Amino acid sequence: MNTLSYKTASANRQTVEKDWVLVDATDEILGRLASKVAKILRGKHKALFTPHVDCGDNVIIINAEKIRLTGNKWQDKSYVRHTGYPGGQRFKTAEQMMAKKPTFMVEKAIKGMLPKNKLGSQIFRNLRVFEGSEHPHAAQEPKVINLNTIK
Question: CB-hemisphere CA count at 13 Å for 56?
């Protein structure tokens, strides 16, 4: 067998084919939704996945306010921020965050599952999260996908 004919295909910025994908978050559990969307954003579902290249798809998430949390997480899960001053830690429950900004919980969960480097920041820019069922990206003709088909 000629071993020189086997080449490892490596994608680069010019050869990557990026699609637009639409995900409906209605009645989806937050963590499961986030892990599957992070996989799509990263490009791990593609045959030409390359770890150091942004080869994932552009993802649009609609109905972010209709996600689910299991157990008592609506009251127990807390989001922490810091004002920058001594003693400036501020806490909000998931219920309070959903009332203030419904898209934040989905964005934070997905961002936490991406690489913590420049590539992760670039990949995160390919995500768009919207509260309702309307979005301004109809011209890109996104494909509607069912997250239950992704492993």
Answer: 27
